[in-house]
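job 3f2a | input accepted
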Amino acid sequence: MIPACFSNPSTLSSTSQVPQNLVTCIYQTQLCNSPAYLTLTWSKSLFSHSLTIYAADSFSITISLYPSSFSFFRNKPGSKSLYLTHHHYQRIKLYWDFTRAEFSHNSAEPESCFYIAISCDARLEFFLGDLYSELSRRSGLVVNRQLGHEPALLSRREHVFGRESYVSRANFSGSMHEIGIECSGGMLVVKVDGEISLVIKRLVWKFRGNERIYVGGLEVEFFWDVLNWINNDSRSSLGGANGHGVFIFQVGDGGVWPQMVGPEKRLMRKSMSMVGPSSTPPALSLSSPSPSCSSVLQWAEESSDCGRSSCSSSTTRSCGSNIGGFSLLLYAWRKD
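job 3f2a | predicted structure (336 res):
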């Protein structure tokens, strides 16, 4: 699932070819009394802003949020009924409201003043956001702040952009923290809430690896893979080339990688088509990374009690054992 596995690093260097902001989260929840894994992909570019909600073998829907540059095009609250294809066509109903959503750091994912909800047989089964009363008023559902089965965030994947510095925010065991990664002068620096947590020197020789750091007193396994940058740096000094690095922050029994859908899937297909079929081994697919580029993901999977892979219909059994774990996967893209 690393784009560099399928293309030359220079082919994806233009920000016009990569969404300006792309966040994918996977939640473990229930749909119609059956375990389910929801993949939410938030995508924001100069003229569009959308959310894709996907459940393997069940449904997929894309909701258009208001365009990032034109506030007078904001959408109204919405709802839609859908049938779950592998649940004997049981019907669910989605509700959403982003009219007053607040975002930070130009993120595609809202922080407050919004909701996404899913109900089955007039029973609320999934809720994300903070506008409980608004949902109750519009839907007629009895909304409790504590669901019978609280959705669990298993993993988050984000595309971040910069020249030498990359910043993300993530919730580790109930506390929000700012994660910073800096790469310059042949050195990699990891910061948590502005404080240096790890310094890796001689990056040319240590382009892949893993170390333990602490985030708010919580032990976190950190994995990095900057081979893509090092390969580019053969033509320029470290810190001046395009491309992207891969960084993983894993807590507990983590290692669940969201399946690529919607904008990410289109990005992968585009990167593969730009390279041409001769550069991609026939055995590869969109859901299986190249063996030469997947080591950082494999390390993260093997560090868990049992291996992990993407939460598709064939891997839900492994996702079910991930309760209590969390993984943050960052693609850090260099731009001119």
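job 3f2a | DSSP finds five helices and 17 strands in the chain.
job 3f2a | closed
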